[in-house]
């Protein structure tokens, strides 16, 4: 591998020039786009003198003219390569005009200006603007932008950019133009442009101060009818942000555009959000309940960025969690208020445990604020986003809702229009609370997941209960010794009747070991600890399985009920894995079956909660509980447990299925979604047993479903039954939905995750299917990612063919789209935790990738870290 230089946080220096205004002109032609940037600039006397050169970031494109002041510069009077544009000397105040040619049709990396179908669009975060025009491509260089777009009126009737439209008109040769001005200073990563033949859904929102805001959602014409849920979600988010955080929208126009080809979920460009179509388009026939929930959350997330990310942005990219972690916290709170708060909390924590905890223990482990990077794209991680949100949540708990809101108000007041740091954010929280958060700041600078053990000791003589908490964090590549974290923990005490005998209170761990004593309590008290998951830690306790069964049924915190159930499942699977390894017969404890039965028959329980509590952890989650991952044993143990529960509780499962079945198919209320989630969980249990009656029940739901949620749930179950049932269902599903690209992504995903023996061969064949293309990230995620990340029994085949197939796809992708390739390569990150044979095979593929001379910076960083 060619080595690449690391960017270090300690080396940060402000840009030596101030940009006072940016004027962009895009002249869109048939096979190219001419971009002209006009920059008004001046030296920053604090960082520049007469000898300071102007160095701008630049991509791989041709410069056709440079004008400095009134002088046209010859090529020898400036330097330009594939990474930088340099002027050796400049006056203190000057104007610089650069014209260059882009080929958006050839831009498969989907950074900068590129084509998605018939639409031209941009993606500039993190460092894509340099692929549009030479510029200081960093978040702390902020300026007001204007943008003029000129294009063919027939092919591109809609011309959009940031801010407000100020002028438009017709030109000769069937061409037209539009001029946009953004009144707010912004970094270049928030720039956006869209040109295409689009339909629009329009609505309006009146802010709390009485301003009228026009709302517009654009999509391809055939999809515009699928945008209404996104519009409803946007208006909900706008109203919520005013009520919860006092934040009004600041422009007269807010626009969203749905794009089919997009590397991420969405982008918060000021006033013009560009979205992956997956997070805009939905109706009950084509989208699942999870899709509806995802759209609501992502729409809100990007809208909330207007204040936490746009109005206040980042001093440097190391501070990424300042906008992302904070905004994830805000969208989680929004979704909790719009839906079931306990269920939302379970979903978020399950996601954290399944993906971020392994990230913390793998080669890509890094603090919420990284110390260095080679390619910033690689640090849009679960650690920055989801763990970053948990850090914000801990601050929220330490201060309480009122003080946290005061801190947010001060943050907006003090730093509006500025590029700031995590220290600035935590500092305002210290100011309003009077607390010292120095130790707490370790959550931002120290990597790893703290492991907390809790033990109980009851004193019969004094009637006191002592809870002792011990924390430790494993050393890693970032720090060889870990300091104790400042960890909030919510505790309540519950008696055998399920009654609260001590109200919930917040306690704080600041040392390696801390004991809390509770006086005058009886011996049959159960502590409910880390309620609502008060901190992102791994928790072990001295609870027996009988204790866990009690907490599963009686804990007054729904999250802890869910955690108790999941811990029971994990304990049972561990026992089954031990039985497999030692050659003993597998059995499932009667206590677990009884606890499952009692929960299933509890008609008072929230059905959405039950669908989460009674779902077995996935194999990808179970692996995190083993030091050495035994792929076959985990798969065999989980399958046996699921089938045993289904066989013992068949009648109860069928009863609950029938109780939940009447939910109207087009009803997307919380109650209807809850019914469907529990119904489909019961169906998944019933369908895992090779019984003709249960198979017929699954097939009946698949053929008669009135919405995508029920159809897709049955389709997934059928994909695991027999090759004949899978193939028949796949053909029927494809025939029905082949014209809907997002639904076909589901079709690819189901086949990629099938547990049937021929799955790898099926996936290889699907890479040649007419609906699949490596150029579209959604298609790659639906097929290759789903196989590599979510089908361990086939990706980790003992013969290594799964590894070889995915490694080949990664290298092919790296030539097309380095961001997607690097993210896919994460499937090899935990190679050292598998058995010796798999370690050798996975390392061999990593070394093969490392041996390529033309790896992108993105893929180089992932592969080199994995091999360290």
Write a brief structural summary.
It comes from Desulfobacter postgatei 2ac9. This protein is of the alpha+beta class and 868 residues long.
Notes on the structure:
The protein is of the alpha+beta class. Among the domains are: 1-197, tricorn interacting facor f3 domain (Immunoglobulin-like, Sandwich), CATH 2.60.40.1730; 313-445, Orthogonal Bundle (Neutral Protease, domain 2), CATH 1.10.390.10; 451-535, Immunoglobulin-like (Sandwich). Helices cover 40% and strands 22% of the residues. It has 27 helices and 31 strands. The strands form eight sheets. An eight-stranded mixed sheet has the order 6-5-9-3-2-12-15-14, with no helix packed on it. It has a five-stranded mixed sheet with strand order 17-18-19-21-20, covered by helices on one side. A four-stranded antiparallel sheet has the order 10-11-16-13, with no helix packed on it. A hairpin with a 5-residue loop joins strand 17 and strand 18. The chain is globular. The model has no long low-confidence stretch (mean pLDDT 97).
* Average pLDDT rating: 97
Could you please say which CATH topology of the domain at 1-197 applies here?
Immunoglobulin-like
Backbone structural class: alpha+beta
Most strands sheet:
8 strands, mixed
Radius of gyration computed on alpha carbons: 28 Å
Q: What's the end-to-end separation, in Å?
A: 13 Å
Q: Which CATH top level class of the domain at 1-197 fits?
A: Mainly Beta
Q: Name the helicity range.
A: 40-55%
The tally of beta strands, per DSSP, is: 31
Strand fraction: 15-25%
Alpha plus pi helix count: 27
- Gross morphology is globular
The poorly predicted ranges are none
Strands side by side in the biggest sheet: 6-5-9-3-2-12-15-14
* Corresponding CATH superfamily of the domain at 1-197: tricorn interacting facor f3 domain
- The appropriate CATH architecture of the domain at 1-197 is Sandwich
